[in-house]
TrEMBL record:
Organism: Nocardia stercoris
Family classification: Belongs to the uracil-DNA glycosylase (UDG) superfamily. Type 5 (UDGb) family.
Alphabetic keyword roster: 4Fe-4S, DNA damage, DNA repair, Hydrolase, Iron, Iron-sulfur, Metal-binding
Keyword Hydrolase found: yes
PANTHER family in the record: TYPE-5 URACIL-DNA GLYCOSYLASE (PTHR33693)
Domain Uracil-DNA glycosylase-like, first and last residues per copy: 64-242
Protein's recorded name: Type-5 uracil-DNA glycosylase
Gene3D superfamilies listed in its UniProt record: Uracil-DNA glycosylase-like domain
One GO process term, biological-process aspect: base-excision repair
Coiled-coil features, chain-numbered ranges: none
CDD domains registered for this protein in UniProt: UDG-F5_TTUDGB_like
Signal peptide: none
Xref: SMART domains: UDG, UreE_C
Length: 254
């Protein structure tokens, strides 16, 4: 689309900068091959496949954000799951984390249905957009620092293109928290000093000095299978943080 090599390390920054809408950004993003380790892993998973998904044609590409571009609430996760978003092509879709997340969003009144199975299942979000710090499934759910930083340009540009922009952000997990805060600082938001550390239920209010806008950022433990099974986070704990985020964004009432 742009004449740039999708496998070049410069592709994310160059194509993110060329994008003028969220739709354009997503179109550039899904062609990205800038991280060789992530490309090899996502394609290997799509070839080997989990036994229960033998009949699936895996997406096996970077997974774009999901939800309206004018949403006042943004949820930010770590990365697509190898046999979840990497299979279905939609954030938090097809894995236990997504099962709980979308069921909770439906219960709170912002998802049109309680399940998210694949890109064509008719699910719609109201007032909420979901994205991630890293858009390709990483081995062992652990992107490298270089992969995180290279992918960061997509997230930064997404934040710039969302119109009129989120007023509340829910961050799912410590990795996403650490990835997001530098992006917010680089896009004009003033962070408290010292930089706030991640914690479940944490809330930070950021300001934009030039515009006077405020952004409320909330932390939640990631609803991974491991965190749920060990009760690091429970469905009730996740629901309460998501409710606070949605109230802060004006999407639901108290």
């Amino acid at each position: 689309m742009t004449g740039l090599d999708p496998g070049s390390p410069e592709y994310p920054a160059a194509c993110a900068g060329l994008s003028r809408t969220v739709t354009e950004l997503d179109a550039h993003l899904i062609d990205c091959r800038a991280c060789p380790r992530l490309v090899a892993w996502r394609e290997e998973v799509a070839t080997v496949k989990r036994p229960g998904f033998r009949d699936w044609e895996y997406w096996a590409r970077p997974v774009p954000g999901f939800g309206p571009a004018d949403a006042p609430v943004l949820l930010v996760g770590l990365a697509p799951a190898a046999n979840g978003g990497n299979r279905t092509g939609r954030m938090f879709t097809g894995d236990p984390s997504g099962d709980l997340l979308f069921a909770t969003l439906h219960e709170l009144g912002v998802a049109s249905q309680p399940t998210s199975i694949d890109r064509g299942d008719g699910l719609e979000l109201c007032g909420v957009r979901i994205t991630a710090a890293v858009h390709c499934a990483p081995p062992d759910n652990r992107p490298t620092t270089a992969e995180r930083d290279r992918c960061r340009t997509w997230l930064a540009r997404e934040l710039e293109l969302l119109d009129p922009g989120p007023v509340a952000v829910g961050v799912l997990g410590g990795f996403a928290w650490q990835a997001l805060l530098p992006v917010l600082a680089a896009t004009g938001w003033r962070l408290p000093a010292p930089r706030p550390t991640f914690g479940h239920g944490m809330e930070v209010i950021l300001t934009q000095p030039l515009s006077g806008r405020q952004l409320r950022v909330f932390g939640s433990y990631h609803p991974s299978r491991r965190n749920i099974s060990t009760r690091i986070v429970t469905p009730a704990m996740l629901r309460e943080v998501l409710r606070r985020v949605l109230v802060a964004g004006g999407v639901v009432s108290e």
